[in-house]
Write a structure and sequence with these properties.
The chain is mainly beta. The chain has three helices and 13 strands, in the order βββαβββαβαββββββ.
């Protein structure tokens, strides 16, 4: 077990937001690969939950553990962070590969008209005529825009529709109703 980690249960609304890549420096800092281009949730949350790497032959710790974060900041294409009880490079190396979770309730509020991807997954997509086109199963970042991946059944087979997540096609996102209204037809 890595010193400084305390066994804990994942919060009910835990979202995986990144993974620890490696130690950074000699004073216990570690480098994090965030899953978002805007990792504000990592910066604002002072307690992270870790699970061992998925493919670890022998995990360094069993189950979920909590880590009290002192500081997290952007560094080139990643995030670097320090934790209260991780004080040297060896302890930081013990975290390598760990998956990072934080509660969805700890995310900063998005700006008007902006959404966290995790909030869009599972929403039903309906066109202007009221036809259900499927459910959002994923989102793709294409560089210029985000694209909704909408899963549906067609002739008994699982299919996907790709709908650009832009104002020209998305009329409304109604999170309480768990629905996205779009200007899109099933044969596009």
């Amino acid at each position: 077990m890595v010193p400084g980690l305390e066994p804990a249960e994942l919060p009910a609304d835990a979202v995986e937001v990144g993974r620890i890549l490696d130690a950074w420096g000699i004073q216990g800092w570690f480098k994090v690969q965030p899953y978002s281009a805007s990792p504000e949730a990592l910066f604002s949350c002072k307690r992270w939950w870790l699970l061992p790497p998925e493919r670890a032959p022998k995990p360094a710790w069993p189950g979920a553990v909590a880590l009290n974060i002192r500081q997290a900041r952007a560094h080139t294409d990643a995030v670097v962070a320090s934790a209260a009880d991780i004080t040297d490079r060896d302890a930081a190396l013990g975290l390598k590969g760990a998956r990072i979770f934080i509660p969805r309730s700890a995310f900063p509020a998005p700006a008007e008209g902006e959404y966290y991807w995790v909030d869009l997954i599972g929403l039903t997509v309906v066109n202007r005529e009221g036809l259900v086109l499927g459910q959002v199963s994923d989102l793709l970042a294409t560089g210029t825009q985000q694209v909704l991946v909408v899963g549906h059944q067609e002739a008994g087979k699982a299919r996907e529709r790709l709908i650009p997540f832009v104002d020209a096609y998305v009329d409304e996102v109604d999170l309480p109703a768990r629905q996205i209204k779009v200007d899109w037809q099933p044969d596009y």
